[in-house]
Amino acid sequence: MKHLIAVGILVALTTLGVAAGLRALPLAPIAASAQAGPIDALFGLHLQVIAFLFSLIIVFMLYSLVVFRRKPGDASDGKHIEGHTGIEVLWTIVPLGIVLYFAYLGAQTLAEIRRVDPQALQVKVTARQWAWTFEYPGDVTSGTLNLPVNRQVLLKITSKDVIHSFWVPEFRVKQDAVPGDKMVKDLVITPDRIGEYKVRCAEMCGTNHAYMEAPVAVMATAQFDAWLKQESETPTDPVARGRRWATKFGCIGCHTLDGSKSVGPSWQGVYGKTEEMADGSKVVVDDAYLIEAITQPAAKLVKGYGNLMPATIGADLTADQIQDLIALIRSLK
Ligand code: CUA
Question: Which of 2, 68, 256, 267 is most deeply packed, by most CB within 10 A?
Fold first, then answer.
């Protein structure tokens, strides 16, 4: 009995210490959504249970090692114990109760963070190798996920090719993007902290998976409304329109506009350049070559680059949109 009381006190003290240590670790980034609260609370509760179980095992083990150490000269056997129904019932019932309680808490939290507000702002999220695009009401497409603060947003997440996963760690929630029109997935987020974050892809999706990111900006409602209004007007400048299509159709996921190397050749300075093809031939990059490169990406590959561009992208674009893209590429000297 004396030993049990000693161990009990040690387990309690170790639990408090380990729990405090775990709490002090920066395990999660800043919380920036209403959904983060219940998720972090559940996480915190799990850490407390983990601290207790860790202490239970470690304290009993170390206590036995030290206190019940074999005395010098004592070669006798330990006491033989044949089961204990009371303890066995207890260590079956107690963990079962804890697991069921956590299942209940998990289900309750899931229901809470998935509850859709009828006033929610709806944004369509399209993932493709290797870019994110965001479509807003009023035919606005953006490569940045702009969101008004303290208003619920309902994301409708889909993919054009393989499975990706939408994840903003500060919002805590995560959702796979699955190809197929019938597989559009919902994700509810209520951003409650103005600031800049990043969407990451959390599902291995090929060459550029690690760089498949998109900026997130949570802003004041007035600022968001002004941005949406401005974007809903189609620009008259072909270069500005080209930028819009480059975002909308995900071109910038693989082609940079600033000369840096990525999956595909950068668009900066490429117009008018003589490029060496994979087969050793030389091609001058002009309108005709660019149209062919967009509509039949595999026809002439620039040396050093793989055949990774979606073969059907040309069918998604109108001839005018292709002209706007060429105007954009031409402008990037
Ligand atoms: Cu998309 Cu990983």
Answer: 267
- 170 ligand 1 Cβ < 6 A: no
Q: Answer for the pair 149, 182: CB distance below 8 angstroms, yes or no.
A: no
CATH code 1.10.760.10 for 238-331: yes
Q: Which residues contact 95 (CB under 8 A, 6 or more apart)?
A: none
**Sequence-separated (6 or more) residues with CB below 8 Å from residue 85:** none
CATH code assigned to 121-231: 2.60.40.420
Q: Residue 310: name the closest of 239, 248, 254 by CA.
A: 254
Find, among 61, 44, 34, 62, the residue nearest to 120 by Cα: 34
How far is the C-alpha of 83 from the C-alpha of 78, rounded, in Å? 15
Ligand 1 atom closest to 201 (CA):
2
Which of 282, 183, 302, 294 minimizes the C-alpha distance to 249? 294
| Nearest CA owner, ligand 1 atom 1 | 164
- pLDDT digit string (tens) for 54-97? 999 999 999 999 998 888 888 888 888 888 999 999 999 999 99
Distance separating alpha carbons of residues 313 and 306, to the nearest angstrom: 16
Atom in ligand 1 nearest the alpha carbon of residue 205: 2
